[in-house]
Amino acid sequence: MQNVSTRPKQGSGGWKGFRLSPKVAPYVFVAPALILFSIFMIYPIIYSFLLSLQKNVAGEQKWVGLDNYSRLLGDELFRKALFNTFIILIIQVPIQLSLAMLLAVGLNSKFLRMKSFFRAVYFLPAITSLAAASVIFRILFADPDGFVNSFVSVFGFGPIHWTLDETWNRVLLILAITWRWTGYNMVIYLSGLQGIPEDLYEAAAVDGASRSTRFFRITIPLMQPIILFTTILSTIGTLQIFDESYLLTNGGPQNATMTVGFYLYRTAFRQADFSYASTIAYGLLVIIAVLSFLQFRFTGGREEAS
Amino acid sequence: MEAEVNMRSNAMPREVGQRGTLWVVRKVLMYAVLIIGAIISLFPFYYMFMASTLTKSDVLAQPPKLLPQDKLFENIDRLMSDSSLKLAEGIWNSVIIAVLYMVLSVFIASLSGYAFAKYKWRGRDLIFGLFLATLMIPSQVTYVPLFKIIAGGNPFDLVWLGTIQAVILPGLASPFGIFLMRQSMGQFPDELMDAGRIDGAGEFGIFWRLVLPVMRPSLAALAVFMFMSQWNNFFWPLVAQVDTIPTRIGALSGASLIDYSGIMTVTSLSVLPIMVVFLLMQREFISGALAGSVKG
């Protein structure tokens, strides 16, 4: 206690000499993040919006109001990219989340051995880079000589034209995404399941509720906030897919797996049409906002548990 | 196992009769599903490592080869000696970027998370709200301006294309990390901070010497998450024209004369370090990834 008066003198060398008062300290602490954030986040968000209202005419930026946005609405390629993305969304997200739930319920079982082994194995794809996963899948599904085609030919199928056929190209993309993300969602579900008190199930079992009744009446309702969270997360993720579209299918035959992310990349960095690329980005922003809002609304939007 | 089963059957008397065959069938089925799932999860990795030991043409040979051969070092030699692939440069950049990004972003996130959690100051809630709001904005919105910033020709006029800072800086102040750190810093007892002040420690000293050591588990979780996100990053290094392992994979797979075993060798190189760290630090990895589920 006596030290209080002597300490400040002692700390007068080097950076310790800068004594922050508790009043100033938080501003100093938050400053690095805030500065970086303003330059690399806030400024770009505003700048991008301004760009979307402009057009490059003969090397000069001109204000064109909402012209780019009306171009976007009539843009067939954008519509196709959006359509592709929505197909993935409608098919892949439910498959992936149901699979994740199935695996999570299985892994949560009391009798199971080697739980941590299974958990680690399922989670492994999620730590792999999308670039790596994409090229592995491209070689596994190579057309016509890849391993998967050899495998299905054992059962008398194929060869399946993964790269030439629009539908199979989409299937390929969906398989790759499912492989990458199912385990990630499973781990989220697993942690949710572990939060459900066991006595709930036991009480229900005593009352004669069957396994499926217990699942649909106890597990699903209690997991609803987490399911909502993973749905929104997967939706946002799907709408932003780039790496797979670029490296796995390269947009696909007749742009079958061209995603909005890939279209944006092409517009900005191959065609150098920065204004229109910004418009695409803002179009995406609106779609994501609307979808997240709708999902939140339709599922009752309970916030507490997660 | 026996005891466990008996306990369950006591708790659920109505099921005792079914415990016999039905229970066994259910258990077998469950294991079957989980094991098939595990095989599907692991097979692509096996195939990748296996293919990196084959010759170029053996990868797509018919019938397919599924056992490793001895060409791994030949593949590595071929890739390393082809200077146009810039593989060594890619590995070096990947390591530097991921490590620097990890250290700096965790430091910045913990500093500001601490400020948000442990101090009352004007504008705190507003600024925190701002960080949170941007979590919901798709990153695509910032790509074009960020490219313009690092390519020059803007008010700041940085000409950073192809430099490491062009990859590191834009994502350095991660709202996700700040949010996560605020959550865990909130649990640090105020009394300890006051005790530190009485003992004459400065505000930064309290943060550095009292708070951070206690926060080690959450720092580790955030660190592995940050390292992984940069190590795996493909899009931004591609745009910023910096050679990293992912962009090298991209370049190699886009080449006209496709070197399949080469691609798998590079891919193995990129996956292996993360895999090893994952096996060593599973808990941190999973809690870092799960932390995302707290942000909703």
Automatic annotation (TrEMBL), chain A:
GO terms for biological process: transmembrane transport. It is found in: Cell membrane. It is a multi-pass membrane protein. GO terms for cellular component: plasma membrane. It holds the Pfam family BPD_transp_1. Gene3D superfamilies: MetI-like. Keywords: Cell membrane, Membrane, Transmembrane, Transmembrane helix, Transport. Its main location: membrane. It comes from the Bacteria. The keyword Protein transport does not apply. Residues 82-295 form the ABC transmembrane type-1 domain. CDD domains: TM_PBP2 (cd06261). PROSITE patterns: ABC_TM1. The keyword Membrane applies. The chain crosses the membrane at residues 24-46, 81-105, 117-141, 220-242, 274-294. Belongs to the binding-protein-dependent transport system permease family. This is Sugar ABC transporter permease.
UniProtKB/TrEMBL annotation, chain B:
Belongs to the binding-protein-dependent transport system permease family. Keywords: Cell membrane, Membrane, Transmembrane, Transmembrane helix, Transport. This is Carbohydrate ABC transporter permease. Its main location: membrane. InterPro entries: MetI-like, MetI-like_sf. It comes from the Bacteria. The keyword Phosphoprotein does not apply. The keyword Membrane applies.
